[in-house]
UniProtKB/TrEMBL annotation:
Gene Ontology CC terms: cytoplasm
Superkingdom of this protein's organism: Eukaryota
InterPro entries in alphabetical order: aa-tRNA-synt_IIb, aa-tRNA-synth_II, aa-tRNA-synth_II/BPL/LPL, Ser-tRNA-ligase_type_1, Ser-tRNA-synth_1_N, SerRS_1_N_sf, SerRS_core, tRNA-bd_arm
PROSITE patterns: AA_TRNA_LIGASE_II
Alphabetical UniProt keywords: Aminoacyl-tRNA synthetase, ATP-binding, Coiled coil, Ligase, Nucleotide-binding, Protein biosynthesis
Recorded GO MF terms: ATP binding; serine-tRNA ligase activity
Keyword Coiled coil included in the entry's annotation: yes
SUPFAM superfamilies: Class II aaRS and biotin synthetases, tRNA-binding arm
Domain Aminoacyl-transfer RNA synthetases class-II family profile: 219-517
UniProt xrefs under CDD domains: SerRS_core
Gene3D superfamilies from the UniProt entry: Bira Bifunctional Protein, Domain 2, Serine-tRNA synthetase, tRNA binding domain
Enzyme Commission identifier(s): 6.1.1.11
Protein's name according to its UniProt entry: serine--tRNA ligase
Amino acid sequence: MTSTLLRCTLASLRLQGRAGLRRAAQQWWGGAAARPLSSSRVPGSAAAAAAVEVQQAEASAAATAQQQAQPPAAAPEAPAYRAHIDFKFVRDNVEAVAANCTARLSSADPHLVAQLYEQYVAAQQETDKLRAARNENSSAMKGKLEPEARAALIEKGKAIKEALEGLEARLVALEDELQREGQRLPNMTHPDVPVGGEDVSVQLALVGQRRSFDFPTKDHLQLGEELDLIDFETGGVVSGAKFYYLRNEAALLELALVNYTMQKVVAAGFTPMMTPDLVRESVFEKCGFQPRAQNTQIYSVKDSAMCLTGTAEIPLGGVCMDKILAESQLPMKMAAYGHCFRTEAGAAGSASKGLYRVHQFSKVEMFVVCTPEQSEALHQQLLDLEVQMFTELGLHFQVLDMASHDLGAPAYRKYDIEAWMPGMERYGEISSASNCTDYQSRRLNIRYRPAADEAAAAAAADAGSGGGKGGKKKGGGKAKVPTQFVHTLNATACAVPRMIVAILENNQQADGSVVIPEVLRPFMMGIDVIRPKKKVEA
């Protein structure tokens, strides 16, 4: 019996390590704290058995201590937020989701997501069963019981509690892993989107005529220097490569572009806004961007959870975060003028020269929150508004339905507009318009209450305020219509530096001057032509 009790004590104290095991053995055998254990203090064969048991326990404790002394493997970081991903859809359509990931060159693993979801559902069901058993056991203890019966229920409750704690810990771990893997999945893709790289993108329209020059043309860098408009040299000294100063008419041209664009979008029903340049990292992630990813385009603030915005899409997306909107509020259209900051990691080649690719620039961004039924029509409206503005500015451009490889994770479909840029002798992107369906709203937690539910609530309120004793009566008892996730869309109204590139290069004249587009002249303080300020040597 002594040996059995000793084994139980050693097992219960094994987690305390070598010192705890030695103290327990010394208590059993009465040895001094400083004296090693000796088998001669335990009579007969029990002494040898106990000594072996202690040696094994001490060896196990020593091994445990050695493992603990080594740096533990870093536990996966818990997700920063919980996305309301439709995991059931992923499980039920796993092959289609996998094909979508392949088409978009995504490394996400939908089969793993489906497997984790099955495990999570099973663990949730087991947890619910144990919670029900715990409640049933607690209810049983409220009655009058014999001591033996009460003791049995107490032991049962302890066992349930222990099992429940382990299962709940597993449930949390499964949910974390499910979120980590699920958040890597890209949006599904519109069936008309071409599969492949940029070379298979479909040209939807070609607008305007490419200008034919009867004199040698200059790129925007040469024009900017000769007309004293752009100063990359000082920008490099003050801030580093890919930073610049706009001078004289170029500074006015930026303001003119912004004012013209804001006038157009406000007339189209957009609410004008100015947004923060610093946004929480979690909001970036909820919008589908990865601030900490390798080769990220995002500037993160050291020792802070803040990042510099790469587009006003992000702070505009956060406007309705964690809100339930009424369907009558939709569509909600917002347009913001903001500053954009991008690392441009990996950028190289002729397309990265000058103003075409810089670390900081200004942009007017459009953002729409709407019902699922409205989103495709609104996507076309955004594109139509872009086409109208760029046509009024006199640009020659093409409209592309972008291929699957060129879609960011949130986009269901994306239209790009590329203007002809003589300096590069090719088309260059000046805007895009994306339908993100419910990808962002499931992460930002933006829902709306359908109109049917609003009408039912109004009817119930009317019924409660009229007739009956006391002026109140219960409503009709209609079940509430579940809230639904909104769809979000975003589109570039004006990316200022690239618009300046297109205007300077396409509107240059033989004498070195540049003609201001007519629609911008009301915002240019009476300037209609940018003329050389110093004689240009031949």
